[in-house]
C-alpha cells in the first residue's frame, strides 16, 4: 500500500505520474529503449524538452518573453544568480525570511555586496519580516523566497519596485495563481510541486539576460545554458521527463482547480489546528501562514511522540517538523489530495478523544 506522503521534498507525486514514469523505464514510446537509455541529443528528448517548455510557458502565462531552462539543484541557483547578475561593485537586496533565503544570501556575498533589507531571523522566522516602505533603485536585483518551506510562511504579495525581482519559488511554484511576469527570474527545484529531485526549473526574462557582464564558465552562464537549450551537459533526462508528466497532470487538473484544492486543503488543516486543544500553529500571524507547508506543534513533547506514532500506524509519513523548528510539518503540495488531508484531520480528532477519555 502506498503511504500518504506529507514529506517536504522529495514530495508526493500522483499515482498516474508514477505509473507512467515506471512504464517508461521499461520502454519509452515503442523506441525499444528505456527512458533511462534514450540519447539526450535526439528527437525523443527534444520533444520532451519542447513540450515541457511550452507547458511552463502556458501555465505561468509567460507569452514567450522568457527563456525556460532545466538545470540542477536549488543551491546551484543561489550561486548562479549573483555570478550572473551581481558584479563586484554592485549591491543586491535580499529578504531574509527563512533558512533558504539566508543560505542564498551567504552564497551571494561571495560575488558582490548584499543589503539584507528585511529579516525575521531574531524571531526564528516564525512570521514574515516587515518590508521597508521604500526600496532604493540602486540595487542590481531584489531576491526573495516566495514560500518558506521550513518555517511555514508564504508571501501573498510582492514589493512594488523598479528593481528586478528574483524569486526562489521552490515550494510553491504552480500551486496557485500568480503573476509570474512580475519576476525577472524565478526558479523552483522540481522535487516539491512539479516533479522528482535532480532538476531545477528556471524562467528568466530574455531581456534580463542582456545584463550579464561577468565572464563565467559556460555551464554557470544562463545565456550559454539558454543558447544550448539546457543540454550543454548531459541533462537529467528522467527527472525532466517526470517533471513533464507532472506538468501535464497540472494542466489536465487545471490551474483553477489546483488553486482551489490547495486553498481547501490548507483551510481544513489550519481549522483543525486552531480548534483542537492539543495542537497549535507555529506561525505567529495568521496572514503569514503558508498553504504549502503547515507547521504545528503539540502542547507537550510526550504528545508529540504519541501523535507521530499514531501517524505511523495509519501509514502517514513525512510529517515530522524540520529539526530547527520541531513539532510537525504537513506539506500539502499539488499531488496531496483533499482526502489525504481529511485523513490527517480525522486522526487529529481521534488523538484528541484518546486524551480526553
Ligand atoms: C528545498 C528548497 C531548496 C533546496 O534545494 P536543493 O535542490 O536541495 O539545493 C531551496 N529553496 C527552497 C525554498 C526549498 O524549499
Summarize the structure.
The chain contains 9 helices and 14 strands. It has 357 residues and is α/β, with parallel strands linked by helices.
List the helices and strands and how they pair.
Elements: E1 4-5, H1 15-26, H2 43-59, E2 66-71, H3 74-85, E3 91-96, H4 99-108, E4 113-119, E5 142-145, E6 147-148, E7 153-154, E8 165-168, E9 185-189, E10 200-205, H5 222-227, H6 237-253, H7 255-275, E11 279-281, E12 293-298, H8 301-313, E13 316-317, E14 328-331, H9 338-356
Parallel strand pairs: 1-13, 3-4, 3-5, 5-8, 8-9
Antiparallel strand pairs: 2-10, 6-7, 9-10, 11-12, 12-14
The protein binds pyridoxal-5'-phosphate.
Residues 9, 73-75, 100, 145, 149, 168, 170-171, 189 line the site of pyridoxal-5'-phosphate.
> Helix amount, in percent?
25-40%
CATH superfamily of the largest domain: Type I PLP-dependent aspartate aminotransferase-like (Major domain)
Q: Tally the helices: what do you get?
A: 9
**Mean of residue pLDDT?**
96
As laid out across the biggest beta sheet, the strand order is 2-10-9-8-5-3-4
Strand content: 15-25%
At the fold tier of CATH, the topology name of the largest domain is: Aspartate Aminotransferase, domain 2
Q: How many runs of DSSP E, i.e. beta strands?
A: 14
Show unreliable segments. none
Q: What ions, cofactors and ligands are bound?
A: pyridoxal-5'-phosphate
H-E string: EHHEHEHEEEEEEEHHHEEHEEH
Provide the gyration radius in Å.
21 Å
Amino acid at each position: 500500500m502506498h503511504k500518504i506522503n506529507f514529506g517536504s521534498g522529495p514530495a508526493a507525486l500522483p499515482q498516474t505520474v508514477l505509473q507512467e514514469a515506471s512504464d517508461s523505464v521499461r520502454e519509452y514510446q515503442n523506441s525499444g529503449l528505456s527512458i533511462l537509455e534514450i540519447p539526450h541529443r535526439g528527437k525523443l528528448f527534444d520533444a520532451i524538452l519542447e513540450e515541457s517548455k511550452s507547458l511552463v510557458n502556458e501555465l505561468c502565462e509567460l507569452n514567450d518573453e522568457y527563456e525556460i531552462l532545466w538545470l540542477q539543484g536549488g543551491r546551484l541557483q543561489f550561486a548562479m544568480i549573483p555570478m550572473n547578475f551581481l558584479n563586484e561593485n554592485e549591491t543586491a537586496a535580499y529578504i531574509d525570511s527563512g533558512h533558504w533565503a539566508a543560505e542564498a544570501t551567504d552564497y551571494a556575498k561571495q560575488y558582490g555586496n548584499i543589503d539584507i533589507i528585511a529579516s525575521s531571523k531574531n524571531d526564528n522566522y516564525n512570521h514574515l519580516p516587515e518590508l521597508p516602505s521604500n526600496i532604493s533603485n540602486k540595487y542590481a536585483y531584489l531576491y526573495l523566497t516566495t514560500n518558506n518551506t521550513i518555517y511555514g510562511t508564504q508571501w501573498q504579495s510582492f514589493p512594488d519596485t523598479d528593481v528586478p525581482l528574483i524569486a526562489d519559488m521552490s515550494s510553491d511554484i504552480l500551486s496557485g495563481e500568480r503573476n509570474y511576469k512580475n519576476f525577472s527570474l524565478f526558479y523552483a527545484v522540481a522535487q516539491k510541486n512539479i516533479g522528482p529531485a535532480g532538476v531545477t526549473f528556471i524562467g528568466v526574462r530574455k531581456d534580463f539576460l542582456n545584463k550579464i557582464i561577468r565572464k563565467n564558465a559556460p555551464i554557470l552562464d544562463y545565456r550559454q545554458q539558454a543558447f544550448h537549450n539546457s543540454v550543454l551537459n548531459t541533462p537529467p533526462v528522467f527527472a525532466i521527463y517526470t517533471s513533464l508528466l507532472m506538468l501535464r497532470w497540472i494542466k489536465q487538473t487545471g490551474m483553477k482547480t489546483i488553486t482551489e484544492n490547495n486553498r481547501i486543503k490548507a483551510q481544513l488543516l489550519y481549522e483543525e489546528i486552531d480548534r483542537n486543544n492539543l495542537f497549535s500553529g507555529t506561525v505567529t500571524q495568521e496572514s503569514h501562514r503558508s498553504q504549502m507547508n503547515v507547521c504545528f506543534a503539540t502542547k507537550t513533547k510526550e504528545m508529540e511522540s504519541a501523535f507521530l506514532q499514531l501517524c505511523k500506524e495509519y501509514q502517514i509519513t513525512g510529517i515530522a517538523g524540520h529539526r530547527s523548528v520541531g513539532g510537525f510539518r504537513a506539506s500539502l503540495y499539488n499531488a496531496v489530495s483533499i482526502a489525504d488531508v481529511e485523513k490527517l484531520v480525522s486522526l487529529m480528532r481521534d488523538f484528541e478523544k484518546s486524551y480526553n477519555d
